[in-house]
Design goal:
By secondary structure, the protein is mainly alpha-helical. The chain contains 5 helices and 2 strands, in the order αααααββ. The protein is globular, with a radius of gyration of 18 Å.
């Protein structure tokens, strides 16, 4: 007789589901890496070309694209994405006010690095 396995609904953040203490940061980094990978693919860049444009060496871009991005801050990953021509904005909302009050701060590719 086959064993019954229970299914647990995801919270929407796999890192939280796995018990990471800084789950939101990990999820943000994963989203940025996904954008980075899309930009590299869309531009048909080799890892060497992408690394040169980002100012890092090829093994680092390889590690990032394979999901090993713990050593990179959210800010640095945002700048990598911006350096490949993806517009990045930081949006903040006051939790106690109308959500329509939004501050948008563009991160310009010229500051990437």
């Amino acid at each position: 007789m086959p064993s019954r396995k229970s299914v647990v609904a995801s919270s929407g953040n796999v890192f939280a589901d796995l018990g990471y203490s800084n789950a939101q940061e990990h999820q943000t980094k994963a989203k940025l890496v996904r954008l980075l990978a899309r930009a590299v693919a869309r531009q048909k860049l080799t890892q060497r070309e992408a690394a040169r444009r980002l100012g890092i060496d090829q093994p680092k871009i390889s590690a990032i694209l394979k999901g090993r991005f713990r050593g990179f801050s959210v800010y640095r990953l945002m700048n990598f994405v911006a350096a490949l021509g993806v517009e990045v904005e930081i949006v903040t909302r006051d939790a106690h006010r109308d959500p329509a009050e939004v501050v948008q701060i563009p991160v310009h590719p010229a500051i990437a690095g």
